[in-house]
Amino acid sequence: MIVETESGLNGVTSFKPTNFNQGGTNGLEDGDASEKAKFGTVAFLIELENTRSIKVLGKGTGIGLKITFFAGICFSMFSPAFNLATNDQWHTLKDGVPHLTVYTAFFYFSSFCFVIAMVLNLTFLYYPILNAPKSSFKAYLNDWNGRGWALLAGLVCGFGYGLQFMGGQAAGYPAADAVQALPLVSTFWAVILFGEYRRSSGITYTLLAGMLLMFTAAVAILMASSGHRK
């Protein structure tokens, strides 16, 4: 393994691909425990970086935080917007105009999700960001590596949002949003399945546990409040 660091900096700033097994096989795949990179080690993080399409090792976190913050704003707005579309709490519709049913609103929601996904994908294929490799629509169609997982994710997401919106009509949208428990579920997957946060500091574990406890309390309080509606 070859790792280059700059003196005076705490962390890896550049890297070269690692080679754990000089015999020609990948130490992460050949089943030899002595050749595998342990979770949480520098070697493991570099091997994980090598599998990503967008390389972030040695780059600042500012752009990633900005993208994540913008995504959070979008996710926080779509459910209230769906609520307004079906219930019209702001009374924007004229008298006598019926509200959209949850199924009609879900159709428009899904249609524009498809449009936005196509626009963003085609744009980033030809004009990639963060130094990602440039591609083309033809290459996109010919490459089916990993597409099964992506299709499964879209299928599950579609069912999940459809059921969430129907549950929102029955129990209230705040309660329907709360039961998603995204931080709880995503943290469970990250820790148990993907081995993230292993070998982290005590402060990291303390913050993680505090986040999970506070979110659990918030979900419980929000769900309890939905039972007192008149």
UniProtKB/TrEMBL annotation:
Signal peptide: none annotated. GO terms for cellular component: membrane. The chain crosses the membrane at residues 63-85, 105-127, 148-166, 178-195, 202-224. Residues 1-27 are annotated as: Disordered. Keywords: ATP-binding, Membrane, Nucleotide-binding, Transmembrane, Transmembrane helix, Transport. It comes from the Eukaryota. It is a multi-pass membrane protein. One of its GO terms (molecular function) is uracil:monoatomic cation symporter activity. It is found in: Membrane. Residues 7-23 have a biased composition (Polar residues). InterPro entries: UPS_plant (IPR030189), Ureide_permease (IPR009834). Belongs to the plant ureide permease (TC 2.A.7.19) family. This is Ureide permease. It comes from Solanum pinnatisectum.
